[in-house]
């Protein structure tokens, strides 16, 4: 057992085992020799603790002594005459508490239901939710402030809003942080943006006043910890860190309705040094989508997403489990996904890019290790002909199978390693890898990876391209991949060849 984070009123621990997300048995947690709760997960979170206090924690015969962090002062929101009835708007009163909180202090949100629009964070404080807190947001877009995409004056430029890799006017999110640092947001709150009650999902690509808001938006923030809460029914992505660094997302539960468009779970965008640990995803689009902007954005900032660790997470619903792009023009590098469980997603790993994303958009050094997938239609998809979104597949420049000129618009995909993975109930294909003829995918390594097929699987389309191909229980299908390395890889129940590729195949 190891300590992941110690806050003023909460502690996050992780069992030191090799099991994906769940422990192999239910176990008891004791705090100061008193029973705290049962759990079957590898990540343990303890809430409603006292600041600057020693705690003795016992789990599975192991004992740790941990002291919670200090706080300068605690401001309970009841002191600010909040309604907390879910009917009257509490935004201003909660914002007053945040603004009044001294450095190093805690705004303690008392149990109750709070109707709000957007709360703006500030630096050097803690926002803590008492057990039983529920936030519900207004669902009429006219109630939300707008973050301008770009503000220019004679000397400076300011970017506040962002949407799908572009600097666009965007509604502020339920929790919004802009240029803040050293903040924790934690506790077992229920954050419900009630998107289905409004018009957010009607003609969702149409911009009305501004682009749709996120659940949480962090713009150019540093040293942020978010832990414990349940966030759901958001108009767009649940959590969107943007141009931010040193981030920890711990033991979160993230949900959106099935089939709701562009309702991703957690999307780090041009971010670095990110830990996503012990989180559960059931969403209408991709669970985790790592991004780095469109090509104009990349030319301007040259900011990749890098050094991202995803561990002990549970992807239970979504188009893709861990996804790269499609806005990846700034590049994505050094990503490790481990000890996680994917159940019922359309794809496990999903990389989507296309011509036009650019030479800065190098995707490299990606590792998946110790993963269990069950009912994932196609565990691995790397697609350089992605046909959705602006300038998508209807443009022959994007979809043409013919070799094009390599120029500054051509994306690059380099190396991947997939190891110690079991994929049960595969339906469409073990993997589909579509490189560009002018810029092939460099290398894919499978080591100790086993594919077991659903013998009753129906045909389907594993890849979003302009010229779709139905697949059913296929092996690894690769086009324009320079090298595929297979080391202890098995296919049980596939139809046809285990590996189809026009590049080098090496079996160890």
Question: Could you please describe the fold and organization of this structure?
Answer:
By secondary structure, this protein is mostly beta strands. It has three domains: 2-67, Immunoglobulin-like (Sandwich), CATH 2.60.40; 72-282, Pectate Lyase C-like (3 Solenoid); 286-508, Pectate Lyase C-like, CATH 2.160.20.10. Helix content is 4%, strand content 48%. It has three helices and 45 strands. It has a 23-stranded parallel beta sheet that branches. A seven-stranded parallel beta sheet has the order 30-33-35-37-40-42-44, with no helix packed on it. A four-stranded antiparallel beta sheet has the order 4-3-6-7, with no helix packed on it. A hairpin with a 2-residue loop joins strand 3 and strand 4 (34-41). The radius of gyration is 23 Å and the shape is globular. The protein starts with a strand and ends with a strand. The mean pLDDT is 94.
Largest sheet: 23 strands, parallel
Determine the mean pLDDT. 94
CATH superfamily of the largest domain: Single-stranded right-handed beta-helix, Pectin lyase-like
Strand fraction band? over 45%
Number of strands: 45
Could you say what the CATH architecture of the largest domain is? 3 Solenoid
The portion of residues assigned to helices is under 10%
Shape: globular
The name CATH uses for the topology of the largest domain is Pectate Lyase C-like
């Amino acid at each position: 057992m190891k300590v992941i984070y110690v806050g003023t009123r909460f502690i996050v621990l992780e069992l030191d085992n090799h099991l994906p997300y769940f422990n192999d048995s239910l176990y008891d947690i004791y705090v100061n020799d008193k029973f705290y709760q049962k759990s079957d997960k590898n990540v343990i979170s303890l809430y409603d603790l006292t600041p600057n206090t020693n705690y003795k924690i016992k789990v599975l015969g192991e004992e740790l002594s941990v002291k919670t962090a200090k706080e300068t002062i605690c401001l309970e929101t009841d002191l600010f005459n909040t309604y907390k009835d879910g009917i009257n708007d509490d935004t201003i009163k909660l914002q007053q508490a945040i603004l009044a909180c001294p450095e190093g202090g805690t705004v303690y949100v008392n149990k109750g239901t709070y109707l709000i629009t957007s709360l703006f964070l500030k630096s050097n404080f803690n926002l803590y939710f008492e057990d039983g807190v529920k936030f519900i947001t207004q669902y009429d877009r006219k109630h939300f402030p707008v973050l301008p995409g770009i503000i220019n004056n004679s000397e400076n430029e300011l970017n506040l809003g962002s949407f799908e890799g572009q600097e666009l006017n965007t509604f502020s999110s339920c929790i919004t942080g802009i240029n803040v640092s050293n903040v924790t947001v934690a506790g077992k709150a229920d954050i419900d943006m009630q998107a289905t009650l409004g018009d957010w999902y009607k003609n969702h690509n149409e911009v009305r006043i501004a682009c749709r808001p996120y659940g949480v938006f962090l713009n150019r923030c540093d040293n942020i910890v978010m832990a414990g809460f349940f966030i759901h029914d958001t108009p767009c992505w649940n959590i969107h860190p943007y141009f931010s660094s040193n981030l920890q997302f711990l033991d979160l539960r993230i949900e959106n309705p099935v089939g709701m468009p562009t309702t991703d779970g957690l999307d780090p965008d041009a971010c670095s040094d990110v830990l996503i640990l012990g989180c559960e995803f059931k969403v209408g689009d991709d669970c985790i989508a790592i991004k780095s902007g469109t090509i104009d954005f990349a030319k301007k900032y040259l900011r990749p997403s890098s050094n991202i660790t995803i561990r002990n997470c549970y992807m239970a619903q979504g188009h893709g489990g861990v996804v790269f792009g499609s806005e990846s023009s700034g590049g994505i590098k050094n990503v490790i996904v481990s000890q996680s469980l994917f159940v019922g997603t359309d794809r496990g790993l999903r990389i989507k890019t296309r011509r036009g994303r650019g030479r800065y958009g190098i995707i490299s050094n990606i590792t998946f290790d110790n993963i269990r997938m069950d009912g994932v239609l196609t565990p691995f998809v790397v697609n350089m002909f992605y046909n959705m979104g602006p300038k998508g597949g209807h443009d022959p420049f994007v979809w043409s199978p013919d070799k094009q000129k390599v120029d500054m618009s051509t994306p690059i995909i380099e190396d991947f390693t997939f190891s110690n993975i079991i994929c049960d109930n595969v339906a469409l294909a073990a993997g589909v890898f579509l490189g560009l003829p002018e810029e092939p995918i460099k290398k894919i390594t499978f080591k100790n990876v086993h594919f077991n097929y659903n013998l009753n699987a129906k045909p389907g389309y594993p890849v979003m391209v302009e010229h779709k191909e139905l697949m059913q229980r296929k092996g690894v299908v690769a086009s324009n991949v320079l090298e595929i390395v297979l080391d202890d890889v098995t296919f049980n129940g596939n139809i046809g060849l285990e590996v189809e590729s026009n590049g080098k195949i090496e079996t160890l």
